[in-house]
Amino acid sequence: ETGVTQSPTHLIKTRGQQVTLRCSSQSGHNTVSWYQQALGQGPQFIFQYYREEENGRGNFPPRFSGLQFPNYSSELNVNALELDDSALYLCASSSGTERYGYTFGSGTRLTVV
Amino acid sequence: DQQVKQNSPSLSVQEGRISILNCDYTNSMFDYFLWYKKYPAEGPTFLISISSIKDKNEDGRFTVFLNKSAKHLSLHIVPSQPGDSAVYFCAASDSEGAQKLVFGQGTRLTINP
After folding, report:
1. Which member of B43, B104, B106 has the closest CB to residue A90?
2. Contact B91 A48 (CB under 8 A)
3. Distance separating alpha carbons of residues A13 and A8, to the nearest angstrom
4. Among A19, A27, A23, A29, which residue's Cα sits nearest to residue A6?
């Protein structure tokens, strides 16, 4: 399987709710990272998973959590949603060997109302 | 603290001319730099990268220049084509491969026919 697939593409949630975003990575890509891209900004690193373990985290609170599964899929969970969580969430995967960085998915547009 | 900055939110260039996109960084630990291109409703796609041991890397119409003393890099596109119209992100990492990327805010490039 090639490419990185994210679901859903769009999502509307109410403040205080919980959300799970999903990502299916390329086969053989044992590293996955999640990024948050607010409107008009560049992507911001949330965290990275390598072989199902978190191995790096950006400046995001603990209510942002993740999981990585052996089948190269992963999840981003956000609890107690806030209005400022409205953003495009990008998943990016890598085998860790290529020099040209990640392969990004098209993202999930989350709107919190 | 914006460690990677793209100070021009937008740039308009005539088709066939040179496009120059600029990026500045503050973190001396960054040793690998990448440029990504993003179309609407798509994830960022890798364009070109450069290691800190080099000052230039070329790939077809795209050339990236790195000035470590000035902590500045630039992407040159020549000749510019209408399909180059997109948002360009500069990103930096403190190691090669699958690690945290720090992105700039992006520059929207428009190529006019």
Report:
1. B43
2. no
3. 12
4. A23
Cβ pair B98:A41 closer than 8 A = no
Q: How big is chain B by its Cα radius of gyration, in Å?
A: 13
Q: Which amino acid is at B69?
A: S
Alpha-carbon distances, residue A78 vs A22, A47, A70, B95 (angstroms) = 12, 13, 21, 28
pLDDT string in tens for chain A (113-residue length): 468 999 999 999 999 999 999 999 888 888 899 999 999 899 999 999 988 999 888 999 999 999 999 988 999 999 999 999 999 999 999 876 665 568 899 999 999 99
Q: What does the alpha-carbon distance between residue A54 and residue B12 come to, in Å, rounded to a whole number?
A: 41
Retrieve residue A35's tokens. 């990024």
Task: Tell me phi and psi for residue B96, to 5 degrees.
Answer: -80, 160
